[in-house]
Write the structure tokens for this entry.
Amino acid sequence: MNTKKQHGICRAFTILAAIVLTAFISQPVLAAGEKIMFLHHSTGEGVYWEGGVPDWIDDYNSTHGTSYQIFERNYPDTPYPWENYPYDYWNLWVKGNCDSSNPDIECMNTLTQNYDVIIFKHCFPGAAIEPDSGNPDVTSSTKTLENYKLQYRALRDMMDSYPDNLFIVWTLTPLHRLDTSEDEASRAKQFVGWVKKEFLFEDGILHPNITVFDFWGIVAEDSLNPSKGKTNCLKYEYEGSHLLSDSHPNYDANQAAGPQFAQTIVSAIESYFGTSDSSDNGTDTVDDNNTDSNDDDSDENVSECPASQILGSNNPRLDKLRRFRDNVLAETTAGRKLIGLYYSNEKIINDILGTSPLLKKSAAKILVAIIDLL
């Protein structure tokens, strides 16, 4: 690593230390019982119920001691047209053609008050994308790449304005090969690629409360020369009929997507709001949440907590940090985010501390000053 880059990392860490080192403790905190709202229509309904999403969440709660609550709703609905394409979400939530007195056209300000996590998707006709006109218009309901991108950027700005909430956006549902053209399917694939690779990165600003669930990547044919089916269309084996053009993914598709969707929800929650164990992938049933001071499980992440490295594992100030975490930070959404930020970057911080004794000494001064102010 060159000297200039190393100094940049040191400065960045010093700033980070002043903000989040108050949350550096040797035992993690469970995320709260986040409430999740999934807004969808028929394709989402199939994944949700046939894919066993609520059962998966219930099983996860039972084995991990969490209490996540998931709800679903057809949205939008009467009196709004039964459409949920980028324009429609922009029209409802950004332009303001919503009404929170009716849950079928509820506004974002009350959705975010009632639920911690908002998930939304588009029905499969959203993949019927027309050629660009060269005159993009955020107010246009015409399905083009240029319009979609403007509407998504406006939605991104809206989601940024709700940092206490987590948003999960689905990629498009591919169309049946008998219900689209090669050019149309290619444009749908282009939009999916933009959402996955550019949407959250193109402006150089972090959007930590937005996650993308790649439904397209599960059910779309990605082979350039498939033996059956067509590229960028619904996979042949996931077609409800090989003779009719219905684009609803079949039971097998829903069974494949459901668990992945549920895992994405939980992983996103625990990454953003905090987790009991950032390395837990949902398969380990060992109780990692034992906070008994006599617990000696030789966990390297516990013994090498950055605060312990900086202050020393027997420093009494660590107890103050733990109390501050449990009694202050963990009681608020913002506080849980700080805790989650730490656990998602713990290894990186440990590595940086290990390469610079000077940085470690500076961090100790900052941390002691913060603790003494608590």
